[in-house]
Amino acid sequence: MSDANRALSHQFLTVGDGPAAREIAYIKRDGADATSGPMLVWLSGYRSDMSGSKAVELDRMADEAGLACLRLDYSGHGLSGGAFREGTISRWLEEALAVILHVAPERIILVGSSMGGWIALRLAQELGKITGAPKLDGIVLIAPAPDFTKELIEPNLSDKEKASLAERGFFEEHSDYSPEPNIFTRDLIEDGRRNLVLTGMIETGCPVHILQGMQDPDVPYSHAMTLVEHLPADDVVLTFIRDGDHRLSRPQDIERMLAAVKTLVR
Question: What is the pLDDT of residues 122-173, one digit of tens each?
């Protein structure tokens, strides 16, 4: 475990009421002072958590730069409570928004990986509706997967998977990143249709930097190009990494991520 992780303790926030209540784990690093700059907010991907290498390195950079940093685990992930199979984009968005508003920073930069990129874009939309919400200074997206349920899963469902969704409410898929299979539920797919962002212009109100591997087997680089078409023309940077995979967690990939964040901080 890194020194950064040892130096900070986990906290928990209850999100939801009654049977829907779940304990969401988060780690908050304070900035050096009130004027140190925006808080960096890490948003993990599907079945990932705040202890991953990119999240830890982002926190380490924040520590070295005197910046505040916030990481959290969605319900059913990492240290948080709740059942993974009950997870949906709306549910995980609600949790991320609740933790951010609870911590109440003045300014933030969202850093979202894969599905976390979708949640980052939805957060930008939701924060814009809330009076007194933190100001969004920038967004860094790593192999972003907005609308992946509709654009990447539904068109490729086999007859067997469709039957499993209809009969059991979920289907399983081999994972290249875990011995356990990925589980995609009917609720996740149906809820995804209610959170689509690639339906018009996504007004983030801030600069956006996208990092996308061209050897990504999960999110084709054409998906990143489609996303750019839905972002305002100004202040959008798309960086293709020719030999990059989906994780983009090699040392050189992490350096690119940190460089993108530092540019937005400045």
Answer: 999 999 999 999 999 999 999 999 999 999 999 999 999 999 999 999 999 8
What token pair was written down for 219?
């999110």
Residue range(s) defining the domain that contains residue 224: 3-265
How many structural domains does the chain have? 1
**Percentage of residues in the chain with pLDDT exceeding 90?**
89
Amino acid at 135: K
Integer Cα distance of 49 and 51 in angstroms = 6
Cα–Cα nearest to 249, from 111, 113, 65: 113
Q: Quote the distance between the C-alpha of residue 40 and its chain's center.
A: 12
Structure tokens at 7: 């130096």
SS3 category, 209: strand
Residue 146 contacts residue 227 (beta carbons within 8 Å)? yes
Per-residue confidence band for 175, with pLDDT thresholds at 50, 70 and 90: confident
> Can you give the CATH number for the domain in which 10 is found?
3.40.50.1820
Instruction: List, in sequence order, every residue forming a beta bridge with 139; answer none if it has no partner.
Output: 110, 208
